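quick one before i forget lol
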Amino acid sequence: MIFFKQNTQQQKESDSNEQNESQSSGLRSRLKKTRRALGSIFGTGSKLDDNLVDDLEDHLIMADMGIDAVDQIMSELRPQVKSGKVKSVDELIQFVTNKISQQLEISEQKLVVEQSPFVLLLVGVNGVGKTTTAARLAHYYQSLGKSVMLAACDTFRAAAIEQLQSWGKKLDIPVVAQQHGSDAAAVAHDAYESAKAKNIDLLIIDTAGRQHTHSSLMEQLAKVNRVLQKLNPQLPHESIIVLDAGNGQNALSQVAHFNEMIPLSGMIVTKLDGTAKGGVVVALAKKYQLPVRFIGVGEAMQDLRLFEAKEFAQALLPQNLAESE
């Protein structure tokens, strides 16, 4: 029996390793546009010299990794190359990958749903995928055994209300909504009271997309926040900004403006599969040091994934010269 238990444990560990490798491989596939852009400087006959290092710096910046993050990496890389401690292209790639991973580690923090009802407020500009993200978050926490409720506080678009209600039916999740044009803060109020009465674990509030430069709409968002805090000073437990990776450096200004109106506690970066600007996640982590709660890498429910720094860094760059050819 002892041998049987050991073999069973070994099989579980093997299955887990295979699953992790599969997920990592899947992420690499989804981030191929960024990786191809960064890996385009490497090829047959590539040699480690100052020109290659300069090209790498340019490509990291073009991938929207941000000047601060790139400067830190290059300031550490150049002395290593000059001294011969980094002596091949493959070693250069591994060095940069490790440095990116280190910069991202501060943003690798899983979101733990503890209080009941736990209130998660989603904010962001138009078109970043907030409503779909709300549904995917609901699906994810459902899979963990949590009861979930959705609040349709995007009352400016009738289609947004209908979209969230449609997701609610598909996922068998209650959705609190009012008519188009209703007071979003009132919807949030009713949703919280309903979630509390029904002992719901997680309430996800989907807010209207608004440009961060539109002061009146931003004030309406602040009203939602104030109403929630009157119900419970701890609310919302989590305020997450949803960002489209394709917006590149503009995503940084979005975080700054929304954080002035509502203190943000995390980020979700979506649409990473459709852009060569995946480096923006590094820029965001470097500048704001906020947790990246999830990343979006496709259209399916399971394409909203927990963010893992090392896995993400390894998916951004070809991991050796042979892979880039």
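fyi Confidence is low (pLDDT under 50) at residues 1-22.
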